[in-house]
Amino acid sequence: MLIEEARLIAPGADGVKMQCDLLSCQNAGWQGVTLNTTRGHFYRAALEGLTTQLQRNLQMLEKIGHFKASELLLVGGGSRNTLWNQIKANMLDIPVKVLDDAETTVAGAALFGWYGVGEFNSPEEARAQIHYQYRYFYPQTEPEFIEEV
């Protein structure tokens, strides 16, 4: 329900911003809150704020590692939030690839277990036995969002 409320809010959350560096959170808070601000605004602003931090961290990794990310692969619970996946694709300007299988940790443990008991000759051979399905989120042009954040 909260995701659907946030989906109705325009990119940029009508100027509502979440301020929080997850490493320090010394100056955490909200900006742009008015009497018309809804919980959908807060949630969308939180998703956008977290994605801004992801963007900064990815840029740092790209600079240090001398590479340019061509896509972002997501697994786990947070990857089930389709609104957040689309926000990530838009802000990072790269496709977001989401593994449809929610049990990746269990599958990975099983693969290494099969390798460990000699069922396969290598972890790579074990991995080749599973054919994952992915869902893609492609960047969409939202200029008002890019300017606001």
From TrEMBL:
Molecular function terms, GO-annotated: kinase activity; phosphotransferase activity, alcohol group as acceptor
UniProtKB keywords: Kinase, Transferase
Domain Carbohydrate kinase FGGY C-terminal, first and last residues per copy: 30-115
Keyword field contains Transferase: yes
Keyword Transferase annotated: yes
Superkingdom field: Bacteria
One Pfam family this sequence matches: FGGY_C
Single GO BP term: carbohydrate metabolic process
InterPro entries, per the entry: ATPase_NBD, Carb_kinase_FGGY_CS, FGGY_C, FGGY_Carb_Kinase
Annotated family: Belongs to the FGGY kinase family.
Protein's name in the database: Carbohydrate kinase FGGY C-terminal domain-containing protein
Organism: Escherichia coli
